[in-house]
Amino acid sequence: MEPVFEKIKELLNKNNIHYKVLEHQHVVTSADAAKIRGTDIRNGAKALVLKSKSGRFFMIVISAAERVDLKKFKQAIMEKNVSLAAPDDVLERTGCTVGSVPPFGNLFDIPVYIDRSFLSKDDIVFSAGSHTKSIEMRLGDYLEVVKPIREDLKKE
User: Fold this and answer.
1) DSSP conformational letter for 114
2) What is the pLDDT of the chain when averaged over all its residues?
3) CATH superfamily membership of 4-151
4) What is the pTM of this model?
5) E strands within 81-129?
6) Closest CA to 47 of 116, 82, 6, 98
7) Are the beta carbons of 130 and 25 closer than 8 angstroms?
């Protein structure tokens, strides 16, 4: 399988989108990634893969500075039994380990939901299928290529 990082670059290049690749030390959490990259944690995107009891996958994209309110998400998708996907399920579905999943569910045939509070940002920074590579780009460009569903998903 083609590495996820290459798939992201191919998608962005095909759409003539400007982006910056940031190479850094191995990180697992969004907070550590922001620290090591020297980027604002509020512009960092967490991409969470969820799975329903019926086997459907979903992706939530939220600022690394926020936490997801699963109750709000379940209401948005009208499904009761949804939880974070097991690490093995994440790897099998995305080719990425937890902590390196990019917010491009469209590359994995997973519907993407983005928290509305993230929409006020100018830029987005995220793990690019690797624990040592991130991508920084304009949020507007990200929204154009991913076309996520916009919902209120953060914990208040």
Assistant:
1) E
2) 93
3) YbaK/aminoacyl-tRNA synthetase-associated domain (3.90.960.10)
4) 0.94
5) 82-84, 112-115, 123-127
6) 98
7) no
